[in-house]
Target: DNA-binding response regulator
Amino acid sequence: MWDNSRNIRVIIVDDHPLVIEGIKNVIQGNDGLELVGQFGSAKALSDCLGMIEVDLVLLDITLPDGNGISICKELKKSYPDLVIIALSNLSERSIIKQMLQSGASGYLLKTADPCDILNCMQDALNGKITLSSELKENFDMAVLSEPEEIPELTIREKQILQLLAAGKTSAEIAADLFISPLTVKTHRATLLHKFETGNILTAVNKARESGIIPR
Amino acid sequence: MWDNSRNIRVIIVDDHPLVIEGIKNVIQGNDGLELVGQFGSAKALSDCLGMIEVDLVLLDITLPDGNGISICKELKKSYPDLVIIALSNLSERSIIKQMLQSGASGYLLKTADPCDILNCMQDALNGKITLSSELKENFDMAVLSEPEEIPELTIREKQILQLLAAGKTSAEIAADLFISPLTVKTHRATLLHKFETGNILTAVNKARESGIIPR
DNA sequence: TCAAAAATACTCCTTAAGGAGTATTGCTCC
DNA sequence: GGAGCAATACTCCTTAAGGAGTATTTTTGA
Model:
């Protein structure tokens, strides 16, 4: 099944010990695969990478200390040959797109079964871009390969969007930030433009979908 | 550590094979515990319960075919002595409250480590109500024991709330449902009353928090 | 240091949402 | 079969949000 010359060295990064235990079971039951590291945070990973030889990283994208998209980008910059497979509960189109465009070779849902996981790992090592089977049914690979148009927000805009998402009115936000309600109106209008919509709730939904603001 | 007279019979219900593998590892490494069943859906569980003897159920609350709160209530009605521990990624106060008030003896985050999980299982079997340690730090048990005031919505109200949550305006909803925009206004007003707020975004946030509408 | 980008603040106007009622028609359950 | 709830629809009024501009002051990066 795997390249026989030597074991494939795998790392798992996930803040769920149960998932790590599960991956351990899956990998240890397979000749040709070797688990050479397990980390619960992005920091723990970056502290150790470079000190160990790795072929493939299974990367949870919701870690306590960073989002998977930027972690993936950085990993790929430092180690272009590293195969990264995202491991996540999230099945939003926008997130999957961003991960694949950040250099991930695959995207696995945590609902995937061990067999599915092994298949994806094999495909990824062979240079293919893969999804877990549940995702394959729901998403078109061609669509996922298109660049995702995510509006770029300034920090002030992000801040105001978060307050709006919390259900605050323009007046309340103005009071919170010690600025004129009219300024808040301007930022709100910019947000509506950038998200190409006419109501804030839709903008908030879109922002949550693309990970701009937390859920 | 455990009652020595016989093994504690445990069942795991989770739609994530990886988590099941992880729990297997945790339980099999422990004398006194025995995994007597593993299920990926609420239906699979209810089909088999009654046919096997069980002491404790680890219950994922986000299953593909039902929500943990109602599953927990039903289990407790049929098997009052069964110890149920919720297992979830969600750490919303409202959800935890509802689970505990539905008869769960504990609430574990999936980020809990094996040791934490075993401790909670022991506490629960001893009649205590327990949380994983991360939750213990963030929530007051007294607060969690208070009944959660969740507004009861009619089906029409739920339907309209979902459309509002999707970012639709009253006019659009009226067109979708073939009713007068004024009727939508009435329902909207009722929703604001029931959620005790003055804006729909807050109502939507509260509804999502208490699981009334999906995220 | 200077131009671009970001943050601030405003006007004028339109539309949608929120607040507080009232009222009629169906169900449906005991 | 009638009380009660759900769903429907309305009025009148206030406030907040959205649309389309313009303009000044900071900040910041090249």
